[in-house]
Specification:
CATH class of the largest domain: Alpha Beta
Largest sheet: 9 strands, mixed
Pfam families: Abhydrolase_1 (PF00561), EF-hand_5 (PF13202), Hydrolase_4 (PF12146), Kinesin (PF00225)
GO molecular function: ATP binding; calcium ion binding; microtubule binding; microtubule motor activity
Keywords: ATP-binding, Calcium, Motor protein, Nucleotide-binding
Oligomer: single chain
Radius of gyration: 33 Å
GO biological process, one term: mitotic spindle organization
Family: Belongs to the TRAFAC class myosin-kinesin ATPase superfamily. Kinesin family.
Number of domains: 4
Number of helices: 30
Length: 1060
């Protein structure tokens, strides 16, 4: 590997104490010049083609500051692509957004001090990570002097991207992205590439061709001060107004120049932008969406609002758009570019009112890669409807939340109203449409007003700020939170499967075959003064499913993220308690004849080896060995091997001088993969085994890093093979993942870190593949990508009973590593091993059913024909038919949501149940019929504490109903489905009629019920698309049927009579 250039620590950039903020340039934008040519220079002082020395500029600009002296080097003369670029008018931008993100991700992974630049030592790490991936003659990173455009001894992102572009053009996109992914893994990068791509830009005004910036005037500041105390604004919005930075942008649009009044709010750490655009009218201006500013800033967005030409305090004649309307998308995109927003960043969320909505739609069609996935529009008007809009939204995995308030300027007869309402009916995932002054609106109207002298315009004026009335979006009730939640949603991965982000327990489907625990280690001396980033609590509102053993699960919170696991061990928990909860159930399964696996996962220094091996107090491995030897029957033999995987090579820890070990696939061997050539210790004497294990551990590779004084540099795998029947128990102490720039690994340690992270990446890929389709495996699982995953195949989606302990560090400076470990653990909770011990999820044990029936109560019907049944702290009004014998089948009817819905909504089915010899129960949920209180219509609230699912269970418990036939319509059908998912053993059959539900993937949890589900839809209902109904039926693996009263009546009667 070629040596890196020296570090020039005395350079001006190296002496700067921090990142400088960009200064506002008042001069006109500089003309474009050829790439590789500095201002006033065509040849560098040292004879480098296209180079420009520091002497040509005097000093280097601050990071993120525009500089006419910056140049993009044309690349190495060794490369034809590089030679072609030199002297050309424009360096070809051939890299896709994905490739740019890949290159930026490697840059950030190498940038040890996060300064936005790479120094000589870091360049060595780059070559270490990249040289083995692509041919040596492809890479040309060793000459820092040549690559460093501004000669400060540090290679910054613009220099890096120019060299990466050259390499990309040489090898092609596929090889380039694969190489960058390998480099990120080897360097321990744990930040998603898309996130890194967004971090590569800095928000703030920068002059560009056709746009120059200046500060707002004293009059602008006075107007802002009046707005900050406007009575119509919430106090939080007033506070945000006081943070606004007043700017003026001189923009060229066609043959005219305009002074555009702009306000921005820079949110520290933000990586997204919220753009607010007003409508058409003299009272319309940049304050239109001001009530939303505080929430969007709190959600991590920079804020941008501006007065369009002819409005507010921008130049132009009031309401006259003819001179610039055809260029309005250029105005939008130009302002964003002038604020540093990357064209391909996909980070701009838009709030558009009236004309502002049209400007957004045209800009979206022009540059879809600039915008995020979800946007909010109000009374959007556009002359020509963009036919490509559905395809664009679908490709982005996003959608629109559209509100309409009909008036003389925004009629329901308009093409926009018709197109949005049609899109809502046809593709509800792409467009949610609300007519706010139509029939039975879901929300109150949005529009209101504010008074602020100087903010708006007189109807006929060329003078800015001649009016005082402001058109304001003023959400009432919970509409503000509804809109903000929509606008800040994450992009759907279109066409790609999505792994779950929450744990199986959070979904209400705990996993017995692959249990996941978390252990938080105590703080160490290095962390004594560092705050903790971890909070632990019992899971609130937990209702254990049938068969759940032990205490309620625990929650662990890191930052704003929360996960629930079988158990989260605090730093005070003993080794004995960890073993009793984690190890003993796996040992019991192994003794009973199953394969088993115990392993620990986490960053280096998080306590994995202590958990697995222990010190004075033994860990999982010695305790499991002791117990296994004591529990095996006399005729069972025990054979033990102990190997380490170090730098992708196997080493026998029982016989370190043994020849090369190999791994072979052997279907006859339990687990499918066998390490051949390893010394096997045939002994059932626990003392002898533990002595040999302790001796072997001394041969294990370890070393000191910045993060851990005794870091394990290998994966240690202890395998106990038991006969009669043949099964294995794997006890695995994984080496820790690490970020090279934090651990300080270099030389041999760096090679170890690369090998460790590569094998852990393969492990992560296997786990992701096993749960990729929302908790279910994809077709191909890459077990063969690593020796580690081949050995552990039985434990990962195979036939072993597995327990994983995710070990985490509480210190705040390791928050990213801790969160990433917990994300891995959350995915792992969905792995389903086929141990053969899972019982029928829908079968209620006889003893449970009998106990429920004994405790059951008989409803007493009142004068109104309904019984009052206690549930969740109040009485629920229920219509009942309880004359049939006590052991008769029981049917529960579940009504829709809203006006007129009660327990009598499905009363036309009552007679069929009684005629077939069954009992029925038909509750009115809170806020319906005679039941007090209120219910939420949101599908995500169905299972919340005190919600309809909990109420339904309480009613079944009170009446002594073990299993019920559930018949639901609309919202009620959603309740039935969610109840069946959470309490599968309490449901015998399901009739789901025009179901209202959101998570169709979650419905697949009911797909094994087969003929137990009757699914009915009504495609003629304007609120229900046939496509949605068929998607539900597909997820349920149920036959799609159009609704017919006869079908429902006959099926319910058959179920009650016990017929198939």
């Amino acid at each position: 590997m070629a040596s890196a250039a020296r570090r020039r620590s005395g350079s001006p950039a190296a002496q700067r104490g921090g990142v400088q903020l960009p200064q506002l340039a008042m001069a006109p934008a500089a003309k474009a010049r050829p790439a590789g040519q500095a201002a006033g220079s065509s040849q560098g002082p040292r004879g480098r083609p296209g180079g420009a020395g520091a002497s040509s500029r005097g000093q280097s600009p601050g990071r993120g500051q525009p500089s006419s002296g910056r140049r993009s080097p044309g690349g190495s003369t060794r490369s034809p692509a590089g030679r072609a670029a030199q002297g050309s008018a424009q360096l070809p931008d051939s890299m896709t957004a994905e490739s740019k993100a890949s290159a930026q991700a490697v840059f950030r992974a190498i940038d040890a001090d996060a300064s936005g630049s790479i120094e000589a030592e870091e360049l060595i790490a780059a070559e270490s990570a990249l040289l083995d991936v692509l041919p040596v003659d492809t890479w040309d990173l060793s000459d820092l002097d040549r690559l460093d455009a501004n000669r400060d001894g540090r290679l910054d992102l613009s220099d890096w991207m120019c060299e990466m572009r050259r390499i990309h053009d040489t090898v092609g996109s596929r090889a380039f992205n694969a190489a960058c992914a390998s480099a990120c893994a080897a360097l321990g990068a744990q930040v998603p590439q898309a996130e890194l791509a967004q971090r590569a830009w800095r928000f703030g005004p920068v002059d560009r061709q056709g746009l120059t910036w200046s500060r707002g005037t004293a009059v602008d500041a006075a107007v802002d001060a009046r707005l900050s105390v406007a009575a119509s604004l919430r106090p939080e919005a007033q506070a945000i107004v006081r943070r606004m930075e007043p700017l003026k942008a001189k923009v060229s649009l066609g043959q005219y120049d305009w002074d555009v009044n702009v306000r921005i709010v820079q949110t520290p750490g933000a990586e997204r932008v919220a753009l607010f655009m007003h409508g058409h009218g003299g009272n319309c201006n940049l304050a239109c969406w001001a009530q939303f500013w505080p929430e969007m800033a709190a959600e991590g967005f920079h804020l941008v609002a501006f007065d369009s030409p002819g409005y507010g305090r921008s130049s132009g004649f009031t309401n006259q758009t003819i001179k610039w309307k055809q260029f309005d998308q250029d105005l939008v995109l130009g302002l964003l570019a002038g604020l540093g927003v990357p064209k391909g960043g996909g980070c701009v969320t838009v709030f558009g009112q009236c004309m502002g909505g049209a400007m957004f739609l045209r800009a979206l069609c022009r540059s879809p890669e600039t915008f995020a996935a979800f946007h909010v529009l109000h009374n959007c008007t556009i002359g020509t409807w963009p036919e490509q809009l559905p395809a664009l939204l679908k490709a982005k995995g996003g959608g629109l939340l559209v509100f309409w308030e009909a008036d003389a300027d925004h009629m329901r007869e308009s093409n926009v109203y018709k197109n949005f309402s049609a899109l809502h009916a046809k593709e509800p995932s792409l467009c949610t449409f609300h007519d706010l002054n139509g029939t039975s609106p879901a929300y109150p109207i949005l529009s209101s007003g504010a008074v602020c002298e100087g903010m708006s315009r007189a109807e006929q004026s060329e003078e800015p700020g001649t009016g005082s009335c402001c058109y304001l979006m003023d959400p009432q009730g919970d509409l503000l939170s509804v809109i903000v939640r929509f606008a800040t949603r994450s992009q759907r991965l279109v066409g790609l499967p999505q792994p779950p982000t929450e744990t199986a327990i959070q979904r209400g489907v705990p996993n017995k075959s692959f249990r996941v625990f978390v252990r938080v280690r105590p703080t160490i001396e290095r962390e004594a003064r560092i705050k903790s980033c971890v909070r632990i609590a019992k899971l609130q509102g937990w209702e254990p499913p049938e068969g759940w053993e032990g205490p309620p699960p625990d929650e662990i919170m890191v930052g704003r993220q929360t996960w629930a696991f079988d158990r989260v061990f605090s730093p005070e928990v003993t080794q004995d308690e960890v073993y009793s909860v984690v190890g003993q159930p796996v040992l019991a399964a192994v003794v009973a004849g199953l394969n088993g696996c115990l392993f620990a996962y986490g960053q280096t220094g998080s306590g994995k080896t202590f958990t697995m091996e222990g010190e004075a107090d033994p860990g999982l491995i010695p305790r499991a060995v002791m117990e296994l030897c004591s529990l095996l029957p006399p005729d069972a033999s025990l054979s033990t091997t102990y190997v380490q995987l170090y730098n992708d090579s196997l080493l026998d820890l029982f016989a370190p001088n043994q020849g090369d070990l190999r791994i072979e696939d052997d279907p006859a061997f339990a687990g499918g993969a066998l390490v051949t050539g390893a010394k096997a210790l045939d002994s059932r004497d626990p003392e002898q085994l533990l002595a040999m294990i302790a001796q072997g551990s001394r041969f294990r590779a370890s070393g000191k890093t910045n993060m851990n004084d005794a870091s394990s540099r290998s994966h240690a795998i202890l395998t106990l093979s038991i006969s009669r029947p043949q099964r294995v128990l794997h006890l695995v102490d994984l080496a820790g993942s690490e970020r090279v720039k934090k651990s300080g690994a270099e030389g041999g340690r760096l090679e170890e870190a690369i090998a460790i992270n590569s094998s852990l990446l393969a492990l992560g890929n296997v786990v992701s593949a096993l749960v990729e389709n929302d908790g279910r495996p994809r077709g191909h699982v890459p077990y063969r990508d690593s020796i580690l995953t081949r050995i552990l195949r039985a434990a990962l989606g195979g036939d072993a009973r597995t327990a994983l302990v995710a070990c985490v560090t509480p210190a705040e400076d390791s928050q990213d590593e801790t969160a990433n470990c917990l994300r891995f653990a959350a995915r792992a909770t969905h792995i389903r091993n086929d141990t053969g011990e899972e019982e029928d999820e829908t079968e209620l044990p006889d003893e449970v059913a009998e106990a429920l029936q004994e405790r059951g109560n008989r409803p007493v019907v009142g004068e109104d024909g309904a019984a009052k049944i206690p549930a969740c702290g109040f009485e629920v009004s229920c219509y009942v038919g309880w004359t049939a014998p006590a052991d008769a089948p029981r049917v529960v009817f579940l009504h829709h949501f809203g006006f007129g819905a009660t327990g009598l909504s499905l009363s036309w089915l009552f007679g069929s149940v009684e005629g077939a010899g069954g009992r029925y129960l038909s509750p009115s949920f809170p806020g319906h019929g005679a039941t007090p209180g209120a219910s939420s219509s949101k599908p995500e609230d169905l299972g919340k504490p005190g919600g309809p699912v909990e109420i339904l269970k309480a009613l079944l418990d009170w009446t002594g109903t073990g299993k019920a036939i559930l018949v639901g319509f609309d919202w009620g059908a959603g309740i039935a489905a969610e109840f069946a998912i959470r309490h599968p053993k309490r449901v015998k059959h399901l009739a789901l009629w025009c179901m209202s539900y959101r998570d169709e993937k979650r419905l697949e949890l009911l797909s094994k019920r087969g003929k137990d589900i009757l699914f009915l839809w009504d495609k003629n209902d304007l609120n229900r698309s046939e496509k949605k109904g068929r998607a539900f039926a597909k997820a349920l693996k149920a036959r799609y049927r159009e609704f017919d009263t006869t079908i429902l009546l006959l099926r319910v009667e058959k179920w009650v009579r016990g017929e198939a």
